[in-house]
Amino acid sequence: QVQLVESGGGLVQAGGSLRLSCAASGRTFSIYAVGWFRQAPGKEREFVAAISRDGGRTYYGDSIKDRFTISRDNAKNMATLQMNSLKPEETAVYYCAAGSFPSSMNTYYYRAGPYDYWGQGTQVTVSS
Protein backbone atom coordinates (compact mmCIF):
# COMPACT_ATOMS: atom_id res chain seq x y z
CA GLN A 1 0.00 0.00 0.00
CA VAL A 2 0.89 3.63 -0.33
CA GLN A 3 -0.44 6.53 1.67
CA LEU A 4 -0.87 9.92 0.03
CA VAL A 5 -1.14 13.29 1.74
CA GLU A 6 -1.87 16.46 -0.20
CA SER A 7 -0.93 19.94 0.92
CA GLY A 8 -0.64 23.43 -0.47
CA GLY A 9 -4.28 24.27 -1.06
CA GLY A 10 -5.78 27.55 0.02
CA LEU A 11 -7.46 30.74 -1.08
CA VAL A 12 -6.09 32.64 -4.06
CA GLN A 13 -7.37 35.40 -6.28
CA ALA A 14 -8.19 34.78 -9.91
CA GLY A 15 -5.01 34.83 -11.96
CA GLY A 16 -2.93 33.73 -9.01
CA SER A 17 -0.86 30.61 -8.43
CA LEU A 18 -0.72 27.72 -6.04
CA ARG A 19 1.61 24.77 -5.72
CA LEU A 20 0.12 21.53 -4.49
CA SER A 21 2.24 18.75 -3.07
CA CYS A 22 1.52 15.05 -2.69
CA ALA A 23 3.69 13.21 -0.17
CA ALA A 24 3.75 9.44 -0.43
CA SER A 25 4.70 6.82 2.13
CA GLY A 26 4.58 3.08 2.17
CA ARG A 27 5.55 1.10 -0.89
CA THR A 28 8.07 2.32 -3.41
CA PHE A 29 6.66 5.47 -4.90
CA SER A 30 8.37 5.01 -8.25
CA ILE A 31 6.22 2.01 -9.21
CA TYR A 32 3.12 4.20 -9.37
CA ALA A 33 1.81 6.64 -11.90
CA VAL A 34 0.50 9.76 -10.19
CA GLY A 35 -2.58 11.70 -11.10
CA TRP A 36 -4.30 14.83 -9.89
CA PHE A 37 -8.06 15.11 -9.98
CA ARG A 38 -10.47 17.71 -8.69
CA GLN A 39 -14.06 17.73 -7.62
CA ALA A 40 -16.29 20.72 -7.13
CA PRO A 41 -19.55 20.53 -5.14
CA GLY A 42 -22.26 18.84 -7.15
CA LYS A 43 -19.91 17.90 -9.96
CA GLU A 44 -18.12 14.75 -11.00
CA ARG A 45 -14.47 14.18 -10.29
CA GLU A 46 -12.43 15.70 -13.10
CA PHE A 47 -9.01 14.76 -14.42
CA VAL A 48 -6.40 17.50 -14.06
CA ALA A 49 -2.96 16.05 -14.76
CA ALA A 50 -0.92 12.87 -14.52
CA ILE A 51 2.67 11.76 -14.74
CA SER A 52 4.25 8.42 -15.55
CA ARG A 53 6.33 6.40 -13.09
CA ASP A 54 9.64 7.78 -14.23
CA GLY A 55 8.33 11.26 -14.90
CA GLY A 56 9.03 10.98 -18.60
CA ARG A 57 5.47 11.49 -19.75
CA THR A 58 2.87 13.96 -18.58
CA TYR A 59 -0.81 14.28 -19.34
CA TYR A 60 -3.16 17.23 -18.87
CA GLY A 61 -6.85 17.91 -18.98
CA ASP A 62 -8.13 19.89 -21.94
CA SER A 63 -9.03 22.91 -19.81
CA ILE A 64 -5.56 23.23 -18.35
CA LYS A 65 -3.96 24.66 -21.50
CA ASP A 66 -0.34 24.96 -20.36
CA ARG A 67 -1.23 26.70 -17.09
CA PHE A 68 -0.46 23.74 -14.84
CA THR A 69 2.69 21.67 -14.54
CA ILE A 70 2.93 18.26 -12.90
CA SER A 71 6.25 16.89 -11.70
CA ARG A 72 7.61 14.27 -9.35
CA ASP A 73 10.71 13.48 -7.35
CA ASN A 74 10.89 9.75 -6.70
CA ALA A 75 13.87 10.15 -4.41
CA LYS A 76 11.72 12.32 -2.13
CA ASN A 77 8.48 10.36 -2.66
CA MET A 78 6.83 13.56 -3.74
CA ALA A 79 4.68 14.82 -6.59
CA THR A 80 3.73 18.42 -7.20
CA LEU A 81 1.21 20.35 -9.24
CA GLN A 82 2.11 23.93 -10.06
CA MET A 83 -1.03 25.84 -10.94
CA ASN A 84 -0.85 29.25 -12.59
CA SER A 85 -3.49 31.65 -13.89
CA LEU A 86 -6.15 30.07 -11.74
CA LYS A 87 -9.80 30.71 -12.50
CA PRO A 88 -12.78 30.87 -10.13
CA GLU A 89 -14.37 27.87 -11.81
CA GLU A 90 -11.36 25.82 -10.75
CA THR A 91 -12.43 26.01 -7.13
CA ALA A 92 -12.57 22.41 -5.94
CA VAL A 93 -11.05 19.79 -3.73
CA TYR A 94 -7.90 18.54 -5.41
CA TYR A 95 -6.92 14.91 -4.97
CA CYS A 96 -3.67 13.11 -5.55
CA ALA A 97 -3.86 9.51 -6.71
CA ALA A 98 -1.41 6.67 -7.37
CA GLY A 99 -1.92 3.86 -9.84
CA SER A 100 0.02 0.72 -10.64
CA PHE A 101 -1.46 0.22 -14.09
CA PRO A 102 0.88 -0.52 -17.01
CA SER A 103 2.67 2.55 -18.30
CA SER A 104 1.64 1.73 -21.85
CA MET A 105 -2.06 2.19 -21.06
CA ASN A 106 -2.18 5.87 -21.94
CA THR A 107 -5.93 6.18 -21.54
CA TYR A 108 -5.77 4.99 -17.94
CA TYR A 109 -4.00 8.15 -16.83
CA TYR A 110 -7.12 10.21 -17.55
CA ARG A 111 -9.57 8.05 -15.65
CA ALA A 112 -10.13 7.87 -11.89
CA GLY A 113 -10.98 4.15 -11.89
CA PRO A 114 -7.50 2.75 -12.62
CA TYR A 115 -5.89 4.57 -9.69
CA ASP A 116 -5.45 2.42 -6.61
CA TYR A 117 -4.80 4.92 -3.85
CA TRP A 118 -6.12 8.37 -3.07
CA GLY A 119 -5.27 11.14 -0.69
CA GLN A 120 -7.80 12.97 1.43
CA GLY A 121 -7.78 16.04 -0.80
CA THR A 122 -6.87 19.67 -0.36
CA GLN A 123 -9.26 22.57 -0.90
CA VAL A 124 -8.44 25.16 -3.53
CA THR A 125 -10.60 28.26 -3.61
CA VAL A 126 -10.17 30.84 -6.35
CA SER A 127 -11.90 34.14 -5.71
CA SER A 128 -13.06 36.44 -8.48
Question: Can you tell me about this structure?
Answer:
This protein is an all-beta fold and 128 residues long. 0% of the residues lie in helices and 49% in strands. It has no helices and eleven strands. Strands 2, 4, 5, 6, 9, 10 and 11 form a seven-stranded mixed beta sheet that branches. A four-stranded antiparallel beta sheet has the order 1-3-8-7, with no helix packed on it. Strand 5 and strand 6 (58-60) form a beta hairpin. The radius of gyration is 14 Å and the shape is globular.
Strands, helices and their partners?
Layout: E1 2-7, E2 10-13, E3 18-26, E4 33-39, E5 46-51, E6 58-60, E7 68-73, E8 78-83, E9 92-99, E10 117-118, E11 122-127
Parallel strand pairs: 2-11
Antiparallel strand pairs: 1-3, 3-8, 4-5, 4-9, 5-6, 7-8, 9-10, 9-11
What is the 3D shape?
A: globular
Average pLDDT, rounded to a whole number, is 95
Tell me the β content.
over 45%
Low-confidence stretches: none
Number of helices: 0
Report the sheet with the most strands, covering strand number, pairing sense and barrel closure.
7 strands, mixed
Q: Structural class, from secondary structure content?
A: mainly beta
Helix content bin = under 10%
End-to-end distance, in Å? Answer: 40 Å
Number of DSSP strand runs: 11
Q: Give Rg in angstroms.
A: 14 Å
One letter per element, helices H and strands E, the order comes to EEEEEEEEEEE
